[in-house]
Amino acid sequence: MEKVNTTARLAELRKLMSENEVDVYIVPSEDSHSSEYIAPSDARRAFISGFTGSAGCAVVTHDKAALATDGRYFNQASKQLDENWVLLKQGLQDVPTWQEWSADQAAGGKVVAVDPTLVTSGTAKKLSEKIKKSGGKDLVPVEVNLVDKVWGGDRPPQPNEPVMVLSDNFAGKNVKTKLADLRKELEKKKSLGFVVSMLDEIAWLFNLRGNDIPYNPVFLSYAVVTADEATLYINSSKLDSKCQSYLAENGVVIKPYEDIFGDATALSQAAAAKKAEDTSDNRKFLIANKASWALKRALGGDDMVEEIRSPIGDSKAVKNETELEGMRSCHIRDGAALIEFFAWLEEQLVVKRATIDEVEAADKLEALRAKQKYFVGLSFSTISSTGANAAVIHYKPERGSCATIDPNAVYLCDSGAQYLDGTTDTTRTLHFGEPTEAEIEAYTLVLKGNIALDRAVFPKGTTGFALDGLARQFLWQQGLDYRHGTGHGVGSYLNVHEGPIGIGTRVQFSEVALSPGNVISDEPGYYEDGSFGIRIENIIMVKEVQTKHKFGDKPYLGFEHVTMVPYCRKLIDSSLLTEGEKAWLNDYNADIWNKTKGYFEKDELTTAWLKRETQNF
Fold it and tell me: How far apart are the first and last CA of the chain?
């Protein structure tokens, strides 16, 4: 991981800060749509700091610069940040949050500024309060992004990739039905309409897919849905005649992407004029709590806007039967690709003693996936990591400078794909030589947590926050843990990380109960910096289960696993497994064998590898 010299960039930014009378400037990771994964043109925080992880926030003053990120990226950030930066390790004791650090720097009446399209209204409000409490002047919106001005002509152009219609055969529910369902929600809430800013929500609502953001089949857009109108704000050059006809047939009006803020202001002013005539009309526009501060300001602020958890996000997270069946199917095909890859890699490293680096392995895996039915592309950049690199939780091997895979070290592969019928995300940790006792123990403890979560049965209304400890319990018993969540929601041919559900200690995971139809990852891990990393990840789907009793007349829920890739036998200490865990493993292995063996009828190498790895314990 190369360091970028940020001295000149920071000097130019500080010059612009002075010209704009700004003392502290905040550079978030997100784009105008609160996207976790962004287009290259929106990678402002990476440009100004040199840190390329997906999560974090940069804060620049006239004499300091700080980068805050979470435990997944401590290792990576420490390697990528140059001497101009201090790393704020979020979540560690006595380390300030980026908001606290910003407020501290504002003491003495200083001005803090941010591009209002890049932070939510809630974040802006809380930050403003902290700044004032610390003796700062205020948080101010600066409409022109200062980092963009520093970036200048080197900034990549905004993406303009074509959009496609996703057939109802894959979506499972048509647009008219989705709009009707949303309008029922708007009527219940007595609202003027919903302004949609999350890209995956727009793609899902209109059954469209794009390619504006790498690995995420979304397109830059906004939407406004009222009781009688639906408007999609998008660069119309992305829409071919088929898309345009399809939208027209479904009653959707197309307007230019950049018109959203002007139209939002016009809508707000028209509604305010009506309210002046009818004082009993207290309806407001709805926006998601992830919508930008700029969008709320354009819509008239608190008087005209109510922030809610997005009803589209909630609906999207509960997959319909077509989407669930697509998840089952695509994970079998994806599992076949991974099984063939691991068998090939072992043969190359152990038998042929070939030299293969991390990127070459990732390329081979992508080529094997590309042969599968309905393959579109990867769902994120493959984490192909050997030895100590496996301890970097979101490691990204760089072509030309990455490590050669060491058959005598742990190999961690976290990868996924986009298929027309679903999205995959699987992590397997392997060893092609003789693992150490520490590696075997860590792997087995992680495996026990993975199985425990998969086997969980819980009453309806239980959140992912409440289940998190099930996956960590065996590590905790040995005084071990991991610095990332245990599970994230997964989209259906959409974003591989999808809210609002998740399994972990984040507060938001305590706010939304798991429901039948949710698709989520199960991925405990353990990492020894500088030595090795272990992670095991399956995709599981929430379902109703039958129990002997039904206390409180509540349904009880459990999980169905869809990932079809065996665990690494060599890393499992079966003496640490209970009889119940062994029985679960044997059933799982039989399921994998039965569902994937047909893909390798003429492939003796892969069949032999699969047979060996799925033997009974």
Answer: 41
pLDDT tens, position by position, 74-104: 989 999 999 999 999 999 999 999 999 999 9
What is the DSSP secondary structure assignment for residue 283, as one 8-state letter? -
Cα–Cα distance between 499 and 489 in angstroms, integer? 6
- Full strand arrangement of the beta sheet holding 519-522: 458-459, 556-561, 538-545, 519-522, 487-489, 498-503
As a 3-state breakdown, the chain gives helix, strand, coil percent values, each rounded to 5, of 40, 20, 35
- Tens of pLDDT, residues 28-62: 999 999 998 999 999 999 999 999 998 999 999 99
> For residues 469 and 486, what is the distance between their CA atoms, to the nearest angstrom?
9
Query: Would you tell me how many other CB atoms lie within 10 Å of the CB of residue 308?
Result: 15
Q: Checking phi first, is residue 422 left (phi over 0); if not, alpha (psi -120 to 50) or beta?
A: left
Cis peptide before 162 (omega within 30 of 0): no
Question: Which pLDDT does position 394 carry in this prediction?
Answer: 86
Q: From the CB of residue 329, how many other CB atoms can be counted at a distance below 10 Å?
A: 16
Residues 6+ apart with CB under 8 A from 604: none
Structure pTM?
0.95
What φ, ψ does residue 487 adopt, rounded to 5°?
-160, 145
